[in-house]
Amino acid sequence: MRALPVVSLRSRGHVLAAPAAQMQALARTGVPAFDEVLARHGRPPLEAGGIEVLQVNVGKLCNQTCGHCHVDAGPDRREVMSHDTAELVIELLRRHPAIPTLDITGGAPELNPQFRYLVEQAAALGRRVIDRCNLSVLLLPAQRDLVGFLAARRVEVTASLPSFRPSGTDAQRGDGVFAKSVEALRQLNTAGYGKGGGLVLNLVHNPVGAFLPGDQASLERDYRRELQLRHGIVFDSLYTITNMPISRFLEHLETSANLERYMELLVASFNPRTADGVMCRSYLSVGWDGALYDCDFNQMLELRANHGAPQTLAALLAAGGPAPRRVVTDRHCFGCTAGAGSSCGGAVPG
Question: N or C: which end of the chain has fewer CB within 10 A?
């Protein structure tokens, strides 16, 4: 297979293939189009109805540079949400109380100047607020009050921890990150997170390699046992997420000559039952600049909401708010429908 054409984006000191080139690479594997496989199983194209989760990616600035990151985030990224755009997010929630959840992601969302504004305003509106946290950000000197801030507003913390083994987490996220993650989890536990008192702490596992995640329930038992026994850490739930064949993970697959094999695995593992529960059917993704997408993965491939749906927050507000829409798909979508399925809430019920 030909190497990915290099176009622009920087990744860990070198260039990363642009979104269009990434989609071309997936097409060259020869796997069929996603909608074609849906049709083979008697499934119509994906449609989104009401918005249960407004997921806001506030930018690509992060204190880590993880090898699997689908956002291509890092300390040198300058894409950050402005206050004007954050105000539009809150205005959408204010006008549409039927949207129950604000899910804030990044990058490390906590590093964005608008993060605390979004949390405070959404909490004041009575919304459930989720912080997608890399854990190590909680140890930064400038964030020493962050755990208390989150706890006071009863923010749900969904924290990435690829493995309960130091070697697995460090291989994906950098040397010493597991130890930092454990320290951050201890701080969250001390504040009351993960103990059943209403401060929810969920962990996220993704495979350290080009294979599907294991059974979510079994992995949760393993995480719970190992983290409690070895580190005294407790949590509420574990979510398993499939590595998406985009951005840095796609680059890894290409350079290791595993892209075609991985895509064939995803297609061979296609589970039509998961199509009913994939997150794009109930999520709306907002980019740092106010652009709208069906999911965070589409956002990273610059596949805006389409088929007549508004493409920006301003346009959505002008149109009177959310309406049913057809989801934009491409071959990366097989990552959400393989095996037990994958979403920001873990395996897909089906």
Answer: N
The residues pairing with 131 across neighbouring beta strands, listed in sequence order, are 104, 157
Which segments of the chain does DSSP mark as H helices, in order?
19-28, 34-40, 83-95, 115-124, 146-152, 166-173, 177-190, 216-231, 247-255, 259-268, 296-300, 313-318, 334-337
- Look-up of token digits 């039509």: 272
CB proximity list for 120: less than 8 A, separation 6 or greater:
153
pLDDT tens-place string over residues 318-344? 999 999 999 999 999 999 999 999 999
Integer Cα distance of 266 and 271 in angstroms: 10
Structural domain range at position 278: 10-337
Element at 112 (helix H, strand E): none
CATH at residue 240 = 3.20.20.70
- Is residue 345 in a domain? no
Answer yes or no: are the C-beta atoms of 294 and 285 closer than 8 Å.
Answer: yes
- Cis preceding-peptide flag for 197 (omega within 30 of 0): no
3-state secondary structure 136-154: HHHHCHHHCCHHHHHHHCC
What does pTM read for this prediction?
Answer: 0.94
